[in-house]
Amino acid sequence: MKKAIFIFSLLMLAGFSVWAQEPGTPRSDARQNAQRVRIHEGRADGDLTKRETSLLNKEQRHIRRSEHRAKTDGNVTVAERRKLDRKQDRANRHIHRAKTMEQSNLINKERHRSVPFFFRYLTMLAPGLQLNLRSLQLLCLTE
């Protein structure tokens, strides 16, 4: 009898320990880790500027805080999961756009400010001219 009570109490203890764990959001955690890796790779490859990286990391912190708030009551509801998924979808789009931004459409913002207005004005007037930002040279694409 004592052995049965002991086994029963161990099973109850194990059941309570599983129940007491924080609510799991493994899919959300995996997505957030993947996004964090993509941001760091983008910064290392030079696809992301320092400012873009800081903005994307700020967005990731916001998602982590939202996830923590959802877990505080001990149960992540379906609505909270949807909200987290939407935030991660939005962050995913932001990372993709920042990494694949065409340099021809958005001339690197930091360098664009340092380019004299005259050169920018010439490239707007003559579509055949292209501005080399590194050497500030105008290149004629048509002959």
- End-to-end Cα distance: 99 Å
Strand content: 5-15%
Mean pLDDT: 75
Q: Count of helical segments?
A: 6
Low-confidence stretches: 103-111
Helix content: 55-70%
Shape: elongated
Radius of gyration: 26 Å
Q: Strand arrangement, largest sheet?
A: 1-2
Q: How many distinct folded domains?
A: 2
Class by SSE composition: mainly alpha
Largest sheet: 2 strands, antiparallel
Secondary-structure element string: HHHHHHEE
Give the total of beta strands: 2
Describe this structure as you would to a colleague.
By secondary structure, the chain is mainly alpha-helical. It folds into two domains: 81 residues; 36 residues, no CATH class. The chain contains six helices and two strands. About 6% of the residues have low confidence.
Strand-helix topology:
Elements: H1 2-20, H2 26-45, H3 50-71, H4 78-99, H5 109-114, H6 117-125, E1 129-132, E2 137-140
Antiparallel strand pairs: 1-2
Helix pairs in contact: 2-3, 2-4, 3-4
What key phrases describe this protein's structure?
143 residues; 2 domains; two-stranded antiparallel sheet
Q: Summary?
A:
With 143 residues, this protein is mainly alpha-helical. It is 69% helix and 6% strand. The protein contains 6 helices and 2 strands.
